[in-house]
TrEMBL record:
GO terms for molecular function: metallodipeptidase activity. This is Membrane dipeptidase. Pfam families: Peptidase_M19. One of its GO terms (biological process) is proteolysis. It comes from marine sediment metagenome. InterPro entries: Metal_Hydrolase, Pept_M19.
Length: 321
């Protein structure tokens, strides 16, 4: 078996801070509850992850989330370091710590003057989604149940994208409905990413991306983070749980992204601690086994380097200040 512990992981989306707080877990101690803690990050060679504040739907929720985020990340026992700049990735490797990137999942709590957005950027906000599968003053999200809403970005939403990108915040299009997605695509010249989304051609779920969306993200030199949530992997019963799904259910999405775009679009956005995942990826310690499977089924070490971290890192290099 290949010793693929060498493949560092940059996970594009996790909900661990809220989950750990709710479960009253000690992040520094290995647990079988949830998907992430420091020992399991070490076992999976996760070098950094985007830790989401969710939902960021009101000012009060954002403030509560920021309070929780900073208590969590700056707790010395948790072994984390906040990442604000590209050179911070090298610093975490030198320090032996794991990196944490601040993300707002939804922009509903941001005011129309963008004062809170600018303050959040100074506090380290580096990636952000406009909506979490709902309607707010900026955008419309993809709904989990039909009918889908057909409204896209508002005038304020168009201004929001320009303001966020000017600051150096990477726009996340996961959870946007198709009209909002295409509005973002039309107005941005910078890379965008779908932090945790899969291919709708493989699993017909509204949260997964169409081939046209995938090609558009590739055209913008962005990435799609493969999501491990069962409902988005389950081709036979989209939206339904099946703990017995295997690594091939993940590989099929990777294969499709590569086929219609290229290996350069594929990233990881596990959505760990956000929803249930198959036993094969029961937590973040399982990444080396996934790399083994891909190596045994046609992917090269260079491919896995790209999937595990370098593709997403390239997006940040092109969008961060």
């Amino acid at each position: 078996m290949v010793n693929n512990f060498k493949f560092s992981v940059l996970d594009g989306h996790i909900d661990t801070i809220k989950k750990s707080s709710r479960d009253k877990r000690d992040f520094s101690v290995r647990s079988e509850i949830g998907h992430y803690d420091l020992p399991r990050m070490d076992e999976g060679n996760v070098q950094a992850a985007i830790f989401a504040i969710y939902p960021a739907s009101s000012i009060n929720r954002i403030l509560k989330g920021l309070d929780l985020w900073f208590k969590f990340v700056f707790n010395p026992l948790n072994g984390l370091m906040q990442i604000k700049r590209i050179d911070d990735f090298a610093k975490i490797q030198a320090s032996g710590k794991r990196g944490a990137i601040l993300h707002f999942e939804g922009a509903g709590g941001i005011d129309k003057t963008f004062r809170l957005l600018r303050i959040a950027y100074r506090l380290g906000l580096r990636t952000m989604g406009l909506s979490w599968s709902n309607v707010n003053k900026f955008a419309t999200g993809v709904m989990f149940n039909d009918p889908q809403k057909e409204t896209g970005l508002t005038k304020e939403g168009i201004k929001f994208v320009a303001e966020a990108q000017a600051l150096g915040i990477t726009i996340d299009v996961s959870h946007l409905n198709e009209p909002s997605f295409w509005d973002v695509y039309e107005i941005t010249e910078k890379p965008i990413f779908a932090s945790h989304s899969n291919a709708r051609a493989i699993v017909n779920h509204p949260r997964n991306l169409t081939d046209e969306q995938i090609k558009a993200i590739h055209e913008k030199h962005g990435t799609v983070g493969i999501n491990f949530v069962m409902g988005f992997l389950n081709a036979k019963e989209p939206g339904m749980y099946n703990y017995n799904l295997n690594f091939d259910s993940i590989k099929k999405h990777i294969d499709h992204l590569v086929e219609i775009a290229s290996i350069d679009i594929v990233a990881i956005g596990s959505d760990f601690d956000g929803a249930a995942t198959p036993t094969c990826v029961k937590d973040c310690s399982m990444f080396p086994r996934l790399w083994d499977y891909l190596l045994e089924n046609g992917y090269s070490e260079q491919d896995i380097e790209k999937i595990s971290h370098t593709n997403l890192l390239q997006v940040f290099k092109k969008t961060w200040k």
